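Q: I'm a student working through a structural biology exercise. My instructor gave each of us a protein and asked us to get a predicted structure, then write a short paragraph describing it. Mine is PRC-barrel domain containing protein. I'm not confident about reading structure output yet, so if you can add a plain explanation after the tokens, that would really help. Here is the sequence I was given:
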Amino acid sequence: MGAGTDPDLGRPIAYLVLAEGTAVYDRHAECIGVVDQVLADEPADLFLGLIVHTTPLPGRHLYAHADQVAELHERGVLLAVERDDLHPPPEPRRQRSGREGSVPAERPLEARLRRVWDRITTR
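A: Happy to help. First, here is the predicted structure for PRC-barrel domain containing protein. I'll explain a few features afterward.
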């Protein structure tokens, strides 16, 4: 999108139906990447923010806190901030298995795929 033109983002939507790969625009309507992950506390129905995979490739992951997200639409997310205002995503907290409320361990294939993806996307 060039300066002065707004993208056609479609109708407003809830975070629950926001799709991975949806375009993300900064406050100047410049496309900065795509939605990689929606962060939410679904039992509490609380939107926490987005992990944005920036473009051009190889890109990197940035975290947009819920307060930095202005609008969610069918074909795009509009941020209230510029790309430079976003930060690296928070590290997930891991708990030991066997404890109450712990996160289940990754399956071996998931762990290998995650490591490969991390290597590809951090260079």
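A: Here are two points you could use in your paragraph. The chain has one domain: 15-91+105-121. Residues 93-105 have pLDDT under 50 and may be disordered. It's a good idea to check both against the output above yourself.
Q: Great, thank you!
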